Amino acid sequence: MEAHRICLLPGDGIGPEIIAEGVKVLNAVGAKHGVAFTCTEAAIGGCAIDEFGCALPDATLEAAKASDAVLLAAVGGPKWDTTDPTRPRPEQGLLGIRKGLELYTNLRPVQIFDALAGASTLKPEVIEGVDLMMVRELTGGVYFGRRERFYDEEGAGPHGAPGQRAYDTMEYREYEIDRIARQAFEAARRRRGKVTSVDKANVLESSRLWREVVHAVHDAEYQDVELEDILVDNCAMQLITRPADFDVMVTENMFGDILSDEAAQITGSLGMLASASLGDGVALYEPSHGSAPDIAGRGIANPLAQILSVEMMLRYSFDMHEGADDIRRAVTRVLDEGWRTGDIADADTPADKVVGTAAMGDLVVEHL
Ligand code: IPM
Ligand code: MG
Known about the structure:
This protein is an alpha/beta fold. It has helices spanning 15-33, 46-52, 58-65, 91-100, 124-127, 174-190, 205-221, 232-241, 253-266, 304-316, 321-336, 357-367; strands spanning 3-11, 36-41, 69-74, 105-111, 131-137, 147-152, 163-168, 194-199, 226-231, 248-251, 274-278, 283-287, 339-340, 353-354. The radius of gyration is 21 Å and the shape is globular.
C-alpha cells in the first residue's frame, strides 16, 4: 500500500501538544479507510531559531516540498518577541513557508457547531445559520510588499527634526488578484453561489485594482455567481450584525487576517477554526489560532482546530471525503455529548464535561 507523506511542523507553545492529537486522528481515519500516512517532523518558528538560528531552515522547506501535504500547528511566543529588525522572528517561518510553497489561497471556514452556539458572545438569533468561507489572499499585499525602516535626517521628528521612519507597502499585481478571485468564485459554485469582495477602494489604489480585476473575472467567466463589494470597515461591522448573510468572502492578505479573527469569534472560540492554504502544489493545513504560550505544556489546549485541519487535508489534498466527513461527525458527536476543553466550556452549563488535550483527541478517535 502506498503511503501519503505528511510533513509535520509542530512549532512552538501548544503546537507539539495539539499536533499529536491531529496525527492520532489522521492515523485512525487512515486505518479505517485503508490509507497509510507516513509522518516526518521538521522545525519551524521559535524552536527553529533556537536550534538553527532562523525560523525557516532550508531543510524544513525542502522537507515540506518533498511531502504530499504539510500539517502545521502554531509558531511564536514571548521568548522570541522583538521589535529589532535585525533579529529573527518566529512568524518569519510561517510567512516563509507560505511564500516558499506559493500558497496564495487561504481558506478559513466559519461554521457553528450547534452544541457550542451558547459559547458565542453574539445573540443566538444573530449567529443562527452562520456558514461562511473566508478566502484570504496569502502571499501578497502589505505582508510581502516593500518595506524599510531608517533614520531620516530630513525630519521624521516634530518640526522637521531628524528621527526614525518606517513604511510598508500594500502592493498587488493583476495576476495575483485574478487567481484568488477565481478561487473564491469556484468555492461559491460549490456552496451557495455568492461572493462578497472586501476592499478599501474609496481610499487605496491597490483596492481599486482589486475591485476592477475581481469584476473582470466575474463578468468574463462567473456570471452565474452573485458578486457584491463591501468596504472593509463596513464589513467588520456587518460581520457581527448579520453574519449568516455571507457565503464566500474574498479579500487581500491583511484585511483577511483581521476579519478572520473576528469571524472566528462568531463561533465562540478561535480554538475551533481550521484553515487550508493552497497553491498549485503541496498544500498546508493549520489551525487559525496561535501558539497560546500562556497555557503551553499543561495539556489543556483545545486540539479541535488542529483536528479539523486534518479534515480539510483529507478533503483538499487526498480527496478522502468520507474520511473527512467521519472526522466532522465525530467532533460533532463529542461536542453534543458535552465534552469540552476549558476554552469552550461554559461555567453555567453543568452538563459540560471538561477534559484535557489528549483526552479530547482520544474521544474523537473513539467516535470515529
Ligand atoms: C494568521 C496569523 C499569522 C498571520 C501570523 C502569526 C504571522 O495571525 O495565520 O492569521 O498574520 O498571517
Ligand atoms: Mg491572524
